[in-house]
User: What shape does this take?
Amino acid sequence: MNSQFAPLSPGTLTERHYEMLVQAVVDYAIFMLDPAGFVVSWNAGAARIKGYDAAEAIGQHLSVFYTDEDRRAGKPAYLLERALREGRAQDEGWRVRKDGTRFWALVVIDAIRNEQGDVIGLAKITRDITDRREAEGRYDALRAQLFQAQKLEALGQLSGGMAHDFNNLLTIILGAAKLASRTDDPERLASLLDNIQTAGERGAQMTRNLLTFARNEPKHTRQVALNELLDSAATFFSQALPRTMTLQMQVDDALHTVELDPSELEMALLNLVLNARDAMGGVGTVQLQAGNRQLAGEVDGLHGAFVVIAVADQGCGIDPAIRPRLFEPFFTTKDVGKGTGLGLCQVYGFARQAGGGVQVESVSGQGTIMEIYLPASCAQAAVAPA
Ligand SMILES: Nc1ncnc2c1ncn2[C@@H]1O[C@H](COP(=O)(O)OP(=O)(O)O)[C@@H](O)[C@H]1O
Ligand SMILES: [Mg+2]
Assistant: This one.
């Protein structure tokens, strides 16, 4: 009996077994290169993914699997050099099959050393993740559409408060213009014109805010100074509340910088403020608090330096029975035309994508606190003491 085919058990694995293992893998292209980048071994996965059989592939330089653009840009040589220098190189990008078609590849190249520590070759593992990339693209497109739909819905909700504000401004402007046309006193005239100008400028600022908010722009993640963002968004949020309600802001100084798309954060906070408004039946104070917080797993298992932004109300509270469904898209307890059930879904999706989470505390009949946790951006988390 051939000992190669004896049952496998730890300690009895031979080189041949390892070779069989590598050959059996068909979902990953696993092959070896010599230090100059020429193929010296080729598994079944490589044949399946790249379309060359072992006889064709062995002896080829790895650059044949790259696109013309990448070859011109010197990418194969760069990755090779990097793997030799640092022990490892990773890449994600288009690669070319034998028949000329492209696939999106996730690539890892590791340097292999002998017992003396000399590099004797490179191990290259390539995965075809074209399907995953396409699914992600579709998901992003859907998310962008949902986000835009959400914005339009929120704009609809804001327009009531805005119309009221514009009306007030127009009343000031028309009143002052009427008085100005009747007065002979140059000082009074100057002061009335001043009023007109101030009211006009406020109206223009409101329109600008509205247009910035409504703009359909692709997601743009960047480093955001939260103190500034919350400062400038405060007026905007308070316009979401009727006159009978107030927004109280309590924002700590020196909040961590976070990495996110600011318009998504504004949208998430607006969603929380609108929910607080609906929960309180039109009277009372909505509180928005923000501070830095160090987490050690107590919220969604998150660890590290975070900023927490909380929106609190003393409204109807949330029935524990519906608590598990809050973040579901289209889950709403509100009447048709009053709610779409997309608000908390956006809040949750946004917070998770930013690397954070959402925490809900609520007592039926007493009120609700919704907290969004956002991770301090990496550069800063390293310095942040607590
Ligand atoms: N602050 C809150 N107080 C009480 N209930 C809330 C609060 N926020 C959310 N909810 C509940 O969660 C549901 C889903 O909220 P959301 O996703 O924003 O959709 P919508 O506001 O359109 O109903 C609401 O219908 C409501 O029942
Ligand atoms: Mg809502």
In short: The CA atoms of residues 184 and 190 lie 11 Å apart. The domain at 220-386 is CATH 3.30.565.10 (Heat Shock Protein 90). The mean pLDDT is 89. The longest helix spans residues 130-182.
